[in-house]
Amino acid sequence: MGKRVVVLGSGFAGQTAALNLRKHLKKTDEVIVVTPNKKFGYVPSWVWVGVGQMDVKETQFDLEPVYKKLGIKYINGLAKGIHVDENYVFVELNGGGTEKVEYDYIINATGPRLNYAATPGLGPDHGHTVSICTPSHAAETGEEYLKMVERMERGEEVRMLIGTGHGMATCQGAAYEYIHNIAFDLDERGLLDKAKITWLSNEHSLGDFGVGGMVIGKGGYTVSGKIFAEASFMERGIHWITGAHVTKIEKNKASYITIDSAEERIQEFDFAMLIPAFAGVQIKYVKKDGTDITSELCVPNGMLKVDADYTSAARGFDNWKKADWPTTYQNPKYPNLFAAGISFAPPHPISKPFASPNGTPIVASPPRTGMAAGIIGHVVALSIADMINGKSTKPTHTASMGDFGAACIASMGKSMTRGSAAVIAMFPVVPDYERFEYGRDMDATFGDQGLAGHWLKALLHHLFIYKMKGNFGWSLIPD
Ligand SMILES: Cc1cc2nc3c(=O)[nH]c(=O)nc-3n(C[C@H](O)[C@H](O)[C@H](O)COP(=O)(O)OP(=O)(O)OC[C@H]3O[C@@H](n4cnc5c(N)ncnc54)[C@H](O)[C@@H]3O)c2cc1C
Predict the structure, then answer these.
(1) For ligand 1, is residue 280 a contact (CB within 6 Å)?
(2) pTM higher than 0.70 for the full model?
Protein backbone atom coordinates (compact mmCIF):
# COMPACT_ATOMS: atom_id res chain seq x y z
CA MET A 1 0.00 0.00 0.00
CA GLY A 2 1.20 3.47 -0.84
CA LYS A 3 2.03 6.24 1.61
CA ARG A 4 0.31 9.57 1.95
CA VAL A 5 1.95 12.99 2.30
CA VAL A 6 -0.19 15.97 3.23
CA VAL A 7 1.06 19.47 2.40
CA LEU A 8 -0.65 22.35 4.19
CA GLY A 9 -0.54 25.50 2.07
CA SER A 10 -0.09 26.32 -1.60
CA GLY A 11 2.42 29.20 -1.47
CA PHE A 12 6.01 28.99 -2.69
CA ALA A 13 6.98 26.42 -0.04
CA GLY A 14 3.87 24.22 -0.29
CA GLN A 15 3.60 24.28 -4.07
CA THR A 16 7.32 23.50 -4.53
CA ALA A 17 7.04 20.65 -2.02
CA ALA A 18 3.92 19.21 -3.66
CA LEU A 19 5.40 19.31 -7.18
CA ASN A 20 8.62 17.64 -6.03
CA LEU A 21 6.82 15.01 -3.98
CA ARG A 22 4.70 14.10 -6.98
CA LYS A 23 7.83 13.88 -9.12
CA HIS A 24 9.75 11.64 -6.73
CA LEU A 25 7.05 9.40 -5.22
CA LYS A 26 5.44 6.35 -6.77
CA LYS A 27 2.00 6.53 -8.41
CA THR A 28 0.62 4.46 -5.54
CA ASP A 29 1.72 7.12 -3.02
CA GLU A 30 -0.65 10.01 -2.50
CA VAL A 31 0.19 13.71 -2.38
CA ILE A 32 -2.57 15.85 -0.91
CA VAL A 33 -2.56 19.65 -0.70
CA VAL A 34 -4.85 21.27 1.86
CA THR A 35 -5.23 24.97 1.20
CA PRO A 36 -7.92 27.62 1.67
CA ASN A 37 -6.97 29.08 -1.71
CA LYS A 38 -8.62 28.38 -5.03
CA LYS A 39 -5.78 30.19 -6.80
CA PHE A 40 -2.02 30.31 -6.58
CA GLY A 41 -0.75 33.88 -6.10
CA TYR A 42 2.61 35.10 -7.37
CA VAL A 43 3.29 37.31 -4.35
CA PRO A 44 6.26 39.41 -5.64
CA SER A 45 4.09 41.05 -8.32
CA TRP A 46 1.56 42.29 -5.73
CA VAL A 47 3.91 45.27 -5.39
CA TRP A 48 2.83 46.27 -8.92
CA VAL A 49 -0.82 45.52 -8.16
CA GLY A 50 -0.56 47.95 -5.24
CA VAL A 51 0.35 50.83 -7.55
CA GLY A 52 -2.35 49.98 -10.06
CA GLN A 53 0.23 48.82 -12.62
CA MET A 54 -0.93 45.22 -12.84
CA ASP A 55 -4.29 43.50 -12.57
CA VAL A 56 -4.23 41.04 -9.68
CA LYS A 57 -5.58 38.34 -12.05
CA GLU A 58 -2.24 38.39 -13.88
CA THR A 59 -0.58 37.14 -10.68
CA GLN A 60 -2.93 34.19 -10.20
CA PHE A 61 -3.95 30.85 -11.67
CA ASP A 62 -6.51 28.23 -10.66
CA LEU A 63 -5.06 25.43 -8.56
CA GLU A 64 -7.65 22.70 -9.21
CA PRO A 65 -6.82 21.98 -12.90
CA VAL A 66 -3.10 22.00 -12.10
CA TYR A 67 -3.49 19.46 -9.31
CA LYS A 68 -5.80 17.36 -11.51
CA LYS A 69 -3.22 17.33 -14.31
CA LEU A 70 -0.39 16.38 -11.96
CA GLY A 71 -2.26 13.77 -9.91
CA ILE A 72 -2.19 15.73 -6.68
CA LYS A 73 -5.31 15.55 -4.50
CA TYR A 74 -6.66 19.00 -3.66
CA ILE A 75 -8.63 19.75 -0.52
CA ASN A 76 -9.95 23.29 -0.43
CA GLY A 77 -10.07 24.07 3.28
CA LEU A 78 -8.30 25.32 6.34
CA ALA A 79 -6.22 23.04 8.56
CA LYS A 80 -7.28 23.61 12.16
CA GLY A 81 -5.55 20.88 14.13
CA ILE A 82 -2.76 18.36 13.61
CA HIS A 83 -3.35 15.22 15.66
CA VAL A 84 0.26 14.18 16.03
CA ASP A 85 -0.24 10.74 17.64
CA GLU A 86 -3.10 9.66 15.41
CA ASN A 87 -1.56 11.15 12.25
CA TYR A 88 -4.46 13.12 10.91
CA VAL A 89 -5.17 16.77 10.25
CA PHE A 90 -8.56 18.22 11.02
CA VAL A 91 -9.72 20.41 8.14
CA GLU A 92 -12.60 22.87 7.89
CA LEU A 93 -13.73 22.59 4.28
CA ASN A 94 -14.46 25.77 2.36
CA GLY A 95 -17.63 24.28 0.91
CA GLY A 96 -18.88 23.53 4.44
CA GLY A 97 -18.27 20.56 6.72
CA THR A 98 -15.07 19.10 8.06
CA GLU A 99 -12.70 16.27 7.16
CA LYS A 100 -10.08 14.24 9.01
CA VAL A 101 -7.23 13.81 6.54
CA GLU A 102 -4.85 11.04 7.50
CA TYR A 103 -1.15 11.23 6.71
CA ASP A 104 2.11 9.34 6.93
CA TYR A 105 4.08 12.59 6.61
CA ILE A 106 2.86 16.16 6.91
CA ILE A 107 4.46 19.44 5.83
CA ASN A 108 3.24 22.65 7.42
CA ALA A 109 3.80 25.28 4.72
CA THR A 110 1.10 27.66 5.89
CA GLY A 111 3.22 30.84 5.70
CA PRO A 112 2.60 33.76 8.02
CA ARG A 113 -0.42 34.90 9.96
CA LEU A 114 -0.49 38.63 9.28
CA ASN A 115 -0.57 39.83 12.87
CA TYR A 116 -2.18 43.24 12.40
CA ALA A 117 -3.67 42.91 15.89
CA ALA A 118 -0.18 43.32 17.42
CA THR A 119 -0.37 47.02 16.47
CA PRO A 120 -3.63 48.75 17.39
CA GLY A 121 -5.21 50.38 14.35
CA LEU A 122 -2.97 48.66 11.79
CA GLY A 123 -4.28 47.05 8.62
CA PRO A 124 -7.09 47.42 6.12
CA ASP A 125 -9.74 45.29 7.83
CA HIS A 126 -9.91 46.82 11.31
CA GLY A 127 -7.51 49.72 10.98
CA HIS A 128 -6.36 52.70 8.97
CA THR A 129 -3.55 51.40 6.75
CA VAL A 130 -3.50 49.51 3.47
CA SER A 131 -1.65 46.28 2.67
CA ILE A 132 -0.03 44.45 -0.24
CA CYS A 133 0.24 41.12 1.62
CA THR A 134 -2.79 39.36 0.12
CA PRO A 135 -4.19 39.55 -3.43
CA SER A 136 -7.42 41.26 -2.41
CA HIS A 137 -5.56 43.71 -0.17
CA ALA A 138 -3.09 44.52 -2.94
CA ALA A 139 -5.95 45.15 -5.41
CA GLU A 140 -7.73 47.46 -2.94
CA THR A 141 -4.44 49.23 -2.23
CA GLY A 142 -3.95 49.84 -5.96
CA GLU A 143 -7.34 51.57 -6.06
CA GLU A 144 -6.57 53.63 -2.94
CA TYR A 145 -3.24 54.65 -4.40
CA LEU A 146 -4.91 55.84 -7.62
CA LYS A 147 -7.27 57.97 -5.51
CA MET A 148 -4.17 59.63 -4.02
CA VAL A 149 -2.89 60.22 -7.56
CA GLU A 150 -6.19 61.96 -8.43
CA ARG A 151 -5.79 64.21 -5.37
CA MET A 152 -2.28 65.14 -6.46
CA GLU A 153 -3.50 65.81 -9.98
CA ARG A 154 -5.97 68.26 -8.44
CA GLY A 155 -2.98 70.03 -6.89
CA GLU A 156 -3.22 68.62 -3.35
CA GLU A 157 -0.15 67.52 -1.42
CA VAL A 158 -0.31 63.94 -0.16
CA ARG A 159 1.67 62.37 2.70
CA MET A 160 2.63 58.76 2.11
CA LEU A 161 4.05 56.49 4.78
CA ILE A 162 5.54 53.13 3.81
CA GLY A 163 7.50 50.55 5.82
CA THR A 164 6.87 48.29 8.79
CA GLY A 165 4.09 48.56 11.35
CA HIS A 166 5.73 46.76 14.27
CA GLY A 167 9.12 46.62 15.99
CA MET A 168 9.49 42.90 15.19
CA ALA A 169 8.20 42.93 11.61
CA THR A 170 10.01 41.35 8.67
CA CYS A 171 9.57 41.63 4.88
CA GLN A 172 11.18 45.09 4.63
CA GLY A 173 12.17 44.14 1.07
CA ALA A 174 8.55 44.16 -0.13
CA ALA A 175 7.95 47.58 1.47
CA TYR A 176 11.22 48.84 -0.04
CA GLU A 177 10.04 47.79 -3.50
CA TYR A 178 6.66 49.35 -2.87
CA ILE A 179 7.99 52.75 -1.83
CA HIS A 180 10.25 52.86 -4.88
CA ASN A 181 7.44 51.86 -7.23
CA ILE A 182 5.31 54.67 -5.80
CA ALA A 183 8.12 57.20 -6.23
CA PHE A 184 8.80 55.95 -9.77
CA ASP A 185 5.14 56.04 -10.77
CA LEU A 186 4.63 59.53 -9.36
CA ASP A 187 7.77 60.71 -11.13
CA GLU A 188 6.47 59.28 -14.42
CA ARG A 189 3.19 61.15 -13.86
CA GLY A 190 5.06 64.38 -13.04
CA LEU A 191 3.59 64.36 -9.53
CA LEU A 192 6.60 63.51 -7.36
CA ASP A 193 6.78 67.06 -5.99
CA LYS A 194 3.19 66.74 -4.76
CA ALA A 195 4.01 63.78 -2.48
CA LYS A 196 5.89 63.69 0.80
CA ILE A 197 7.06 60.10 0.94
CA THR A 198 8.45 58.72 4.21
CA TRP A 199 9.97 55.35 5.06
CA LEU A 200 9.21 54.19 8.61
CA SER A 201 10.97 50.98 9.57
CA ASN A 202 12.15 48.84 12.45
CA GLU A 203 15.52 48.32 10.74
CA HIS A 204 18.40 49.66 12.79
CA SER A 205 19.64 51.40 9.67
CA LEU A 206 18.60 51.56 6.05
CA GLY A 207 19.52 48.51 4.02
CA ASP A 208 19.36 46.12 7.00
CA PHE A 209 16.44 44.10 5.53
CA GLY A 210 16.47 41.73 8.52
CA VAL A 211 19.71 40.11 7.33
CA GLY A 212 21.97 42.40 9.32
CA GLY A 213 22.56 44.51 6.23
CA MET A 214 25.30 43.61 3.82
CA VAL A 215 28.51 44.72 2.29
CA ILE A 216 28.30 44.36 -1.46
CA GLY A 217 30.61 44.46 -4.42
CA LYS A 218 29.45 47.09 -6.91
CA GLY A 219 31.32 48.22 -10.02
CA GLY A 220 34.65 47.06 -8.59
CA TYR A 221 34.07 48.79 -5.23
CA THR A 222 33.04 47.37 -1.88
CA VAL A 223 30.05 49.32 -0.62
CA SER A 224 27.85 49.10 2.46
CA GLY A 225 24.25 48.22 1.60
CA LYS A 226 23.27 51.15 3.84
CA ILE A 227 24.86 53.60 1.40
CA PHE A 228 23.21 51.80 -1.52
CA ALA A 229 19.77 52.10 0.13
CA GLU A 230 20.30 55.70 1.30
CA ALA A 231 21.37 56.76 -2.19
CA SER A 232 18.25 55.18 -3.68
CA PHE A 233 16.05 57.13 -1.24
CA MET A 234 17.88 60.43 -1.71
CA GLU A 235 17.62 60.17 -5.50
CA ARG A 236 13.82 60.25 -5.22
CA GLY A 237 13.54 62.63 -2.26
CA ILE A 238 12.26 59.94 0.11
CA HIS A 239 12.63 60.71 3.84
CA TRP A 240 13.36 57.96 6.32
CA ILE A 241 12.88 57.06 9.98
CA THR A 242 14.57 53.86 11.16
CA GLY A 243 14.75 51.89 14.41
CA ALA A 244 11.04 52.46 14.95
CA HIS A 245 8.31 50.45 16.63
CA VAL A 246 4.81 51.63 15.70
CA THR A 247 2.74 51.75 18.89
CA LYS A 248 -0.62 52.60 17.37
CA ILE A 249 -2.31 53.85 14.25
CA GLU A 250 -5.20 56.26 14.26
CA LYS A 251 -6.90 57.84 11.27
CA ASN A 252 -4.12 59.62 9.33
CA LYS A 253 -1.70 59.28 12.27
CA ALA A 254 1.01 56.77 13.18
CA SER A 255 2.52 56.87 16.69
CA TYR A 256 5.94 55.33 17.15
CA ILE A 257 8.86 55.03 19.52
CA THR A 258 12.45 54.40 18.50
CA ILE A 259 15.66 52.79 19.66
CA ASP A 260 16.73 56.26 20.87
CA SER A 261 13.56 57.42 22.53
CA ALA A 262 10.57 55.88 24.27
CA GLU A 263 8.68 59.13 23.88
CA GLU A 264 5.89 58.65 21.35
CA ARG A 265 6.27 60.64 18.18
CA ILE A 266 3.67 61.12 15.48
CA GLN A 267 3.90 60.75 11.74
CA GLU A 268 0.83 61.99 9.91
CA PHE A 269 -0.24 60.42 6.65
CA ASP A 270 -2.90 60.35 3.97
CA PHE A 271 -1.87 56.90 2.72
CA ALA A 272 0.07 54.31 4.70
CA MET A 273 1.23 50.80 3.81
CA LEU A 274 2.98 49.26 6.79
CA ILE A 275 3.86 45.55 6.91
CA PRO A 276 2.54 43.86 10.09
CA ALA A 277 4.43 41.52 12.40
CA PHE A 278 4.25 37.91 11.20
CA ALA A 279 3.15 35.06 13.44
CA GLY A 280 2.47 31.38 12.85
CA VAL A 281 -0.90 30.35 11.46
CA GLN A 282 -3.27 29.23 14.21
CA ILE A 283 -3.13 25.45 13.98
CA LYS A 284 -3.43 23.37 17.15
CA TYR A 285 -1.18 20.39 17.78
CA VAL A 286 -3.11 17.76 19.71
CA LYS A 287 -2.11 14.50 21.40
CA LYS A 288 -4.22 11.32 21.41
CA ASP A 289 -5.66 12.09 24.85
CA GLY A 290 -6.77 15.50 23.58
CA THR A 291 -3.95 17.49 25.25
CA ASP A 292 -3.09 20.63 23.30
CA ILE A 293 0.70 20.66 22.91
CA THR A 294 0.91 23.67 20.58
CA SER A 295 2.98 25.64 23.10
CA GLU A 296 5.45 22.74 23.30
CA LEU A 297 5.84 22.30 19.54
CA CYS A 298 5.77 25.97 18.59
CA VAL A 299 7.54 29.14 19.68
CA PRO A 300 5.28 31.73 21.35
CA ASN A 301 4.26 33.37 18.06
CA GLY A 302 2.96 30.02 16.77
CA MET A 303 5.72 29.17 14.27
CA LEU A 304 6.67 25.49 14.32
CA LYS A 305 9.90 24.35 15.97
CA VAL A 306 12.17 22.34 13.71
CA ASP A 307 15.79 21.17 14.02
CA ALA A 308 17.16 24.60 15.01
CA ASP A 309 18.96 25.32 18.28
CA TYR A 310 16.29 27.29 20.12
CA THR A 311 18.50 27.71 23.17
CA SER A 312 20.89 29.83 21.09
CA ALA A 313 18.77 33.00 21.36
CA ALA A 314 19.82 33.34 25.00
CA ARG A 315 23.52 33.30 24.07
CA GLY A 316 23.23 36.78 22.60
CA PHE A 317 24.11 38.28 19.24
CA ASP A 318 27.90 37.98 19.57
CA ASN A 319 27.65 34.23 20.10
CA TRP A 320 25.20 33.34 17.38
CA LYS A 321 26.44 30.86 14.81
CA LYS A 322 25.21 29.45 11.55
CA ALA A 323 24.90 26.05 13.28
CA ASP A 324 21.94 27.52 15.23
CA TRP A 325 19.89 27.42 12.01
CA PRO A 326 17.86 24.39 10.92
CA THR A 327 18.94 22.14 8.08
CA THR A 328 16.24 19.46 7.66
CA TYR A 329 13.13 21.32 8.95
CA GLN A 330 11.98 18.18 10.75
CA ASN A 331 10.20 18.58 14.07
CA PRO A 332 12.42 17.03 16.78
CA LYS A 333 9.49 15.36 18.61
CA TYR A 334 7.46 14.09 15.65
CA PRO A 335 9.75 12.92 12.82
CA ASN A 336 6.90 12.80 10.28
CA LEU A 337 6.13 16.49 10.86
CA PHE A 338 8.03 19.17 8.89
CA ALA A 339 7.75 22.92 8.38
CA ALA A 340 8.72 24.72 5.18
CA GLY A 341 8.84 28.41 4.29
CA ILE A 342 7.74 31.12 6.68
CA SER A 343 6.01 28.61 8.98
CA PHE A 344 9.24 27.33 10.56
CA ALA A 345 10.45 29.16 13.67
CA PRO A 346 13.87 30.78 13.25
CA PRO A 347 16.17 30.31 16.27
CA HIS A 348 16.82 34.04 16.64
CA PRO A 349 17.06 37.19 14.53
CA ILE A 350 19.90 37.63 12.03
CA SER A 351 20.14 41.39 12.60
CA LYS A 352 21.49 42.71 15.88
CA PRO A 353 18.55 43.19 18.27
CA PHE A 354 17.97 46.61 19.82
CA ALA A 355 15.33 47.91 22.19
CA SER A 356 13.72 51.22 22.96
CA PRO A 357 14.76 52.80 26.30
CA ASN A 358 11.51 51.39 27.78
CA GLY A 359 12.60 47.85 26.81
CA THR A 360 10.41 47.38 23.72
CA PRO A 361 12.35 45.08 21.36
CA ILE A 362 13.08 46.61 17.98
CA VAL A 363 14.69 44.30 15.45
CA ALA A 364 13.99 43.45 11.85
CA SER A 365 12.99 39.76 12.01
CA PRO A 366 14.68 37.31 9.62
CA PRO A 367 13.14 37.20 6.17
CA ARG A 368 12.31 33.89 4.52
CA THR A 369 11.91 35.05 0.99
CA GLY A 370 10.16 33.20 -1.80
CA MET A 371 13.47 31.73 -2.90
CA ALA A 372 14.25 30.39 0.59
CA ALA A 373 10.69 29.07 0.90
CA GLY A 374 11.09 27.24 -2.42
CA ILE A 375 14.50 25.79 -1.51
CA ILE A 376 13.21 24.56 1.85
CA GLY A 377 10.02 23.12 0.34
CA HIS A 378 12.19 21.31 -2.20
CA VAL A 379 14.64 19.70 0.26
CA VAL A 380 11.86 18.68 2.63
CA ALA A 381 10.05 16.96 -0.27
CA LEU A 382 13.24 15.16 -1.36
CA SER A 383 13.91 13.94 2.19
CA ILE A 384 10.36 12.66 2.64
CA ALA A 385 10.47 10.96 -0.78
CA ASP A 386 13.73 9.22 0.15
CA MET A 387 12.27 8.07 3.47
CA ILE A 388 9.13 6.74 1.78
CA ASN A 389 11.18 5.10 -0.96
CA GLY A 390 13.15 3.26 1.72
CA LYS A 391 16.47 5.00 1.06
CA SER A 392 16.81 6.25 4.61
CA THR A 393 14.99 6.56 7.89
CA LYS A 394 16.24 10.13 8.36
CA PRO A 395 16.04 13.28 6.21
CA THR A 396 18.59 12.99 3.40
CA HIS A 397 18.56 16.56 2.11
CA THR A 398 19.54 19.71 3.94
CA ALA A 399 19.48 23.45 3.31
CA SER A 400 20.57 25.86 6.00
CA MET A 401 20.13 29.60 5.60
CA GLY A 402 23.73 29.66 6.81
CA ASP A 403 24.74 27.63 3.75
CA PHE A 404 22.60 28.87 0.92
CA GLY A 405 22.54 32.28 -0.65
CA ALA A 406 19.78 34.54 -1.87
CA ALA A 407 19.21 36.41 -5.07
CA CYS A 408 16.84 39.30 -4.69
CA ILE A 409 15.51 41.44 -7.50
CA ALA A 410 13.89 44.49 -5.96
CA SER A 411 11.67 46.37 -8.35
CA MET A 412 12.32 50.12 -8.34
CA GLY A 413 9.83 50.97 -11.07
CA LYS A 414 7.73 49.09 -13.62
CA SER A 415 8.36 50.08 -17.22
CA MET A 416 9.94 48.06 -20.03
CA THR A 417 11.84 51.14 -21.24
CA ARG A 418 12.42 53.32 -18.16
CA GLY A 419 11.91 50.92 -15.24
CA SER A 420 14.63 49.51 -13.03
CA ALA A 421 15.32 46.95 -10.34
CA ALA A 422 18.09 46.43 -7.83
CA VAL A 423 19.64 43.01 -8.32
CA ILE A 424 21.27 41.83 -5.12
CA ALA A 425 22.92 38.48 -4.53
CA MET A 426 24.29 37.41 -1.17
CA PHE A 427 25.96 34.29 0.12
CA PRO A 428 25.10 33.04 2.67
CA VAL A 429 21.83 34.51 3.98
CA VAL A 430 22.93 34.16 7.62
CA PRO A 431 26.34 35.86 7.87
CA ASP A 432 29.23 33.60 8.78
CA TYR A 433 31.92 35.75 10.41
CA GLU A 434 34.09 32.70 11.09
CA ARG A 435 34.55 32.17 7.35
CA PHE A 436 34.18 35.61 5.83
CA GLU A 437 35.51 39.00 6.94
CA TYR A 438 32.19 40.76 6.28
CA GLY A 439 30.11 37.67 7.11
CA ARG A 440 29.52 36.89 3.44
CA ASP A 441 31.57 35.71 0.50
CA MET A 442 32.45 38.89 -1.38
CA ASP A 443 32.83 36.97 -4.65
CA ALA A 444 29.18 35.96 -4.44
CA THR A 445 27.71 39.05 -2.77
CA PHE A 446 27.05 41.90 -5.15
CA GLY A 447 24.44 44.39 -6.21
CA ASP A 448 23.55 46.62 -9.10
CA GLN A 449 20.58 48.52 -10.38
CA GLY A 450 19.19 49.22 -13.80
CA LEU A 451 16.69 48.55 -16.57
CA ALA A 452 18.01 45.02 -17.19
CA GLY A 453 17.04 44.27 -13.57
CA HIS A 454 13.44 45.16 -14.39
CA TRP A 455 13.44 42.89 -17.44
CA LEU A 456 14.71 40.08 -15.23
CA LYS A 457 12.00 40.79 -12.64
CA ALA A 458 9.31 40.75 -15.36
CA LEU A 459 10.74 37.51 -16.77
CA LEU A 460 10.70 35.86 -13.33
CA HIS A 461 7.00 36.65 -12.99
CA HIS A 462 6.24 34.51 -16.07
CA LEU A 463 8.89 31.88 -15.35
CA PHE A 464 7.68 31.18 -11.81
CA ILE A 465 4.03 31.11 -12.74
CA TYR A 466 4.99 28.60 -15.46
CA LYS A 467 6.93 26.53 -12.92
CA MET A 468 4.28 26.64 -10.21
CA LYS A 469 1.75 25.32 -12.75
CA GLY A 470 3.95 22.24 -13.09
CA ASN A 471 4.24 22.83 -16.83
CA PHE A 472 6.65 20.86 -19.04
CA GLY A 473 10.23 21.14 -17.76
CA TRP A 474 9.16 22.93 -14.53
CA SER A 475 11.83 21.18 -12.47
CA LEU A 476 14.60 22.71 -14.59
CA ILE A 477 13.68 26.19 -13.32
CA PRO A 478 15.62 26.88 -10.10
CA ASP A 479 13.79 27.50 -6.80
C1 LIG B 1 4.26 42.12 -1.43
C2 LIG B 1 5.33 41.08 -1.25
C3 LIG B 1 6.36 41.01 -2.17
C4 LIG B 1 7.35 40.05 -2.04
N5 LIG B 1 8.35 40.00 -2.96
C6 LIG B 1 9.26 39.02 -2.90
C7 LIG B 1 10.27 38.92 -3.90
O8 LIG B 1 10.36 39.74 -4.81
N9 LIG B 1 11.14 37.88 -3.80
C10 LIG B 1 11.07 36.96 -2.80
O11 LIG B 1 11.88 36.04 -2.79
N12 LIG B 1 10.15 37.05 -1.83
C13 LIG B 1 9.23 38.06 -1.86
N14 LIG B 1 8.29 38.15 -0.88
C15 LIG B 1 8.27 37.15 0.17
C16 LIG B 1 7.59 35.86 -0.32
O17 LIG B 1 6.37 36.17 -0.90
C18 LIG B 1 7.40 34.91 0.85
O19 LIG B 1 8.64 34.60 1.36
C20 LIG B 1 6.74 33.62 0.40
O21 LIG B 1 5.46 33.88 -0.11
C22 LIG B 1 6.67 32.64 1.54
O23 LIG B 1 6.18 31.44 1.06
P24 LIG B 1 5.39 30.44 2.02
O25 LIG B 1 4.99 29.32 1.14
O26 LIG B 1 6.18 30.17 3.23
O27 LIG B 1 4.12 31.25 2.51
P28 LIG B 1 2.88 31.80 1.68
O29 LIG B 1 3.28 32.21 0.31
O30 LIG B 1 2.23 32.82 2.54
O31 LIG B 1 1.91 30.55 1.53
C32 LIG B 1 1.21 30.03 2.62
C33 LIG B 1 0.08 29.18 2.14
O34 LIG B 1 -0.55 28.52 3.24
C35 LIG B 1 -1.95 28.70 3.16
N36 LIG B 1 -2.54 28.56 4.50
C37 LIG B 1 -2.62 29.48 5.47
N38 LIG B 1 -3.23 28.95 6.55
C39 LIG B 1 -3.54 27.68 6.25
C40 LIG B 1 -4.15 26.62 6.96
N41 LIG B 1 -4.59 26.77 8.21
N42 LIG B 1 -4.33 25.42 6.32
C43 LIG B 1 -3.88 25.24 5.05
N44 LIG B 1 -3.26 26.20 4.35
C45 LIG B 1 -3.10 27.41 4.94
C46 LIG B 1 -2.08 30.07 2.53
O47 LIG B 1 -3.38 30.31 2.08
C48 LIG B 1 -1.03 29.95 1.44
O49 LIG B 1 -1.50 29.19 0.37
C50 LIG B 1 7.31 39.14 -0.96
C51 LIG B 1 6.29 39.23 -0.01
C52 LIG B 1 5.30 40.20 -0.15
C53 LIG B 1 4.20 40.28 0.88
Answers:
(1) no
(2) yes
